[in-house]
Write a structure and sequence with these properties.
It catalyses: Endonucleolytic cleavage to 5'-phosphomonoester. This is Ribonuclease HII. By secondary structure, the chain is α/β, with parallel strands linked by helices. Helix content is 37%, strand content 15%. The protein has one domain: 2-Layer Sandwich (Nucleotidyltransferase, domain 5). The chain has six helices and five strands. A hairpin with an 8-residue loop joins β1 and β2. The chain starts with 11 loop residues before the first strand and ends in a 21-residue tail after the last helix. The model has no long low-confidence stretch (mean pLDDT 94).
Amino acid sequence: MLLTRYQELLLEAGCDEAGRGCLAGPVFAAAVILPANFKHKLLNDSKQMKPADRDLLRKVIEEKAICYAVASVDNEEIDRINILNASFKAMHLALEKLSQVPEHILVDGNRFTPYGNIPHTCIIQGDGLYASIAAASVLAKTYRDEYMQQLHVTYPHFGWDTNMGYGTKHHRDAIREFGDTPYHRKSFRLLPEQLELDF
């Protein structure tokens, strides 16, 4: 069972992002403040959950959370400021949108840019340890997947309805055949370099 709190005294928000390693689309982040007694047997790191369970949990989290917010940073800004900074920016934007100001921030991962004067704690693989980070991972993932499925309607060749912009073989083969799109991250290596053969 996931831990509800890192500490007991301060109002705590969990933060996580989705889509950091993708070749296309924005990076999404969520911030969630859960009530102290929040528990759900399906809640886990969103990557470990079935899509149907993530969709179910999204509704539960949105209904039961004290407050939550989701934000994104698009591929053009990712190319300008790099993916790590874009991930932090998306988390900051989500925190800004919360209807209550947290007193402590729990962040999935090992690095974070401080948000104002609010203390934060980075937890490696925190989405599998703390409920608020897991809840943020579920929201970030489901909102991003939904966005990529909408883009898929316009760009069906790339399989974004299933690969969500990650660099699968199908996705890379489609880039080879059709070229990139306005949603691809130009600062990422979209295709592996071809080996030069000497004859």
